[in-house]
């Protein structure tokens, strides 16, 4: 009898974090299935190429995923592995997010060579982050700090800190943990101070809707609790029509049969910060996200977001 081997090709960006995530999925697929061979198909995306412009100004949803999606639609790849936080809320026809893997630590991390925490930074210290969500929350906590744009992949950002261009930088803890640099995390920033982005720390897998063979292979990688949390968080963003470059935080926790979802919309200068939360049954995770978005809209989130889009 001949043994048939199934081939799964992963479209991936070439950054260290993207490659780590692709290798992680490859290892998981090979662990669960003896008859599967996995190949990485590395490629560059628009987001990797345009490096000198603040992300908020390039706008364009899905800057980091379009090329990967085209590869799947063309049949050059079977799956794409994404940081959930960078995945647009809508998918092109024929593709869907099929799998959400177990979440890594979702918190933001404070990274500095000289100071132990945000509170310990001296007046006027220079803090690097290109995320509007981090900017507005840090401005609120510490209006005296000088917050400056910080682009590039995780290693580039760390190099800029080590060069002395910043007193501290803020990154997703998950990226540092995955790249085996947990010692670079000077302090975790709790969600009460910096509410994470929707999906932060979670890896998702996209594939063609009609590819039943691949979908069956992906089934054991699915993590139910992460799926519930990320569904609630993404539903809030979707209702707010927020892409990934917006001052929006969304963070869900599951406690038994209940989901607790916190949301935030902030003016970039930190002058206005809207926060709210909802709790409800796990089965209603997405509806909770929509309800929370509507509560925030009632408080004036639409006006704040309209201003962000106008300025961008
Ligand atoms: N926007 C870039 C990006 N996308 C995912 C991560 C980190 C890992 C994750 O959240 O899963 C990062 C880096 C960062 O925000 O510091």
Main sheet record: 5 strands, mixed
Per DSSP E runs of 2 or more residues, the count of β-strands stands at 13
**Main structural class:** alpha/beta
In what order do the strands lie side by side in the largest sheet?
Answer: 2-1-3-10-4
Q: What distance lies between the first and last C-alpha atoms, to the nearest angstrom? A: 61 Å
Number of helices: 11
Domain Porphobilinogen deaminase N-terminal: 8-215
Pathway: Porphyrin-containing compound metabolism; protoporphyrin-IX biosynthesis; coproporphyrinogen-III from 5-aminolevulinate: step 2/4
Pfam families: Porphobil_deam, Porphobil_deamC
Cofactor: dipyrromethane
In short:
By secondary structure, the chain is of the alpha/beta class.
């Amino acid at each position: 009898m001949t043994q048939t081997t199934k081939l799964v090709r992963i479209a991936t960006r070439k950054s260290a974090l993207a490659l780590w995530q692709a290798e992680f999925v490859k290892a998981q697929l090979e662990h669960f299935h003896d008859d599967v061979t996995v190949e990485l198909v590395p490629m560059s995306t628009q987001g990797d190429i345009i490096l000198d412009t603040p992300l908020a100004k390039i706008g364009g949803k899905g800057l980091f995923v379009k090329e990967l999606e085209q590869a799947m639609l063309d049949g050059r790849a079977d799956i794409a592995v994404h940081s959930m936080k960078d995945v647009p809320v809508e998918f092109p026809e024929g593709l869907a997010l099929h799998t959400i893997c177990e979440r890594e630590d979702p918190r933001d991390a404070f990274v500095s060579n000289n100071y132990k925490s945000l509170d310990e930074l001296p007046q006027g210290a220079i803090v690097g982050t290109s995320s509007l969500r981090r900017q507005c929350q840090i401005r609120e906590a510490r209006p005296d700090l000088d917050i400056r744009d910080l682009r590039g992949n995780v290693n580039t950002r760390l190099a800029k800190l080590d060069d002395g261009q910043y007193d501290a930088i803020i990154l997703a803890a998950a990226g540092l943990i995955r790249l085996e640099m947990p010692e670079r995390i000077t302090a975790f920033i709790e969600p009460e101070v910096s509410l994470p982005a929707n999906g932060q720390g979670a890896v998702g897998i996209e594939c063609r809707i009609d590819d039943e063979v691949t979908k069956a292979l992906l089934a054991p990688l699915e993590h139910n609790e992460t799926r519930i949390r990320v569904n609630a968080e993404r539903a809030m963003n979707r209702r707010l029509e927020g892409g990934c470059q917006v001052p929006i935080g969304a963070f869900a926790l599951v406690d038994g049969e209940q989901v607790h979802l916190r949301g935030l919309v902030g003016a970039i200068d930190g002058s206005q910060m809207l926060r709210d939360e909802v709790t409800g049954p796990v089965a209603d995770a997405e509806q909770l996200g929509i309800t929370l978005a509507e509560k925030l809209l009632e408080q004036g989130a639409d006006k704040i977001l309209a201003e962000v889009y106008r300025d961008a």
